[in-house]
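Exercise: predict the fold of this chain.
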Amino acid sequence: MKPPQSAPGTGAASAAWELLLPAAAAPARTRGRSLQAALREAVRSGRLAPGTRLPSSRDLAADLGVSRGLVTEAYEQLTAEGYLRSGRGAGTWVGAAARAARPRAHDLAPRSPGARADFVPGTPDLSLFPRSAWAAAQRDVLADLPHQDLGYPDPRGLPRLRTALAGLLARRRGVVADPERIVVVSGVAQATTLLGFALHARGVRAVGVEDPGSPQHDALYASAGVTAVPLPVDGEGVALEPLRASGVRAVVTTPAHQFPTGIAYSADRRAGLLDWAREVDGIVLEDDYDGDFRYDRAPVGALQGLDPDHVAYTGSVSKSLAPGLRLGWLLVPESWAEEIVERKRTMDLGHPALDQALFARFLERGDYDRQLRRCQRAYRERRDALVAALDEHFPGAEVSGIAAGLHVIATLPERYGPEERFLARVAEAGVAVRPLSSCTHPRAGSAETKKVRLVLGYAHVPPARIAEGVRLMAQAATG
């Protein structure tokens, strides 16, 4: 095969033309498209550099053993797309518009790379995902789903799913659940963003958040132009006097199992919080992120059930099934429903219909309740393993927040401090942990404690690895 001629100062590797040989050998009906794709890729990848002069259509056709018309058509198509340039009597050249593609796609999913033991909270055990039951539900849905349900859905979600969710939330979480006010969302993060935009549209520029609390709330509300105002949490819940003094009219709470302290809001604090909302005509934004998992008694009911006109309630399957499903729900007061639904419509035209129909089937057949019971048994065992390991390897440690959820708070004796040194040592040993300080807002003049306080997640760690991980952590801390 003849090598292509090159413009002055440029070199064209004849190896680039080897990319076209498989295309030339493709079946006749696809040969033209294959030739175009191969030539396009040669330009994109940089194998044919900008400024390279291509052979005439006659010469290239002869070299490849294809018709001249195929080559001419390929040149014309890629010239129209901007990959090539040509001029009357000047031949055809590789244009300068195309840039070499990235060699590979990067994975930005959150990970703890190289960790020998990972106690970072927030992830369930993904191996518990019910693949067989999910696959069976998927087959049934694909067989039965009406064609029209594959069109653009109601932005609130499929009526079938909203009805099933209303039944689930009323039965398990004590929610006043009207299917007309449920919006199916891609997780609590989207629910939070929707609420942030609705608050901003109403002129609200600040929202109260628990301190300590989830750092994600700050960034999500900031994306909607709303500033997060930290409010201290005491042993009963978010403190009411600082809340009243802040002047905010919206506050984010995790009352069933406060993140990260693990407390359940007291009955008095719940009542006081709702009294505040009525006094200021405000709204409580309830994040029920793991309310189904309680080990000492029945789960504490949702705050929304006490006053559905002043509480927006949100949850998801991220802890019960898998966060990768991106599937959750938002239940809003009637006076907020229209603007939330319209914002959801403009944001993404509704959640994927097939996923909704599948989850509805999963709920209707009782598979979701079975999954919750399975997870509850597994997570209780892992919580017990973590508490026992901490008692063995960190004598004198105080462990709190163990009655519910997927993490505990471990306060280590002062001899393991200061925190910065402890974290450096355990990280060097390959143990991933999260300090409680990462969940608090810095305050001017706040004194650093010598005690190390950790938020330790256990749901995703098998019991044997929990024991080994705590042993490694203790070994690193005392080494």
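Check your answer against the key: Residues 417 and 450 are 5 Å apart (CA to CA).
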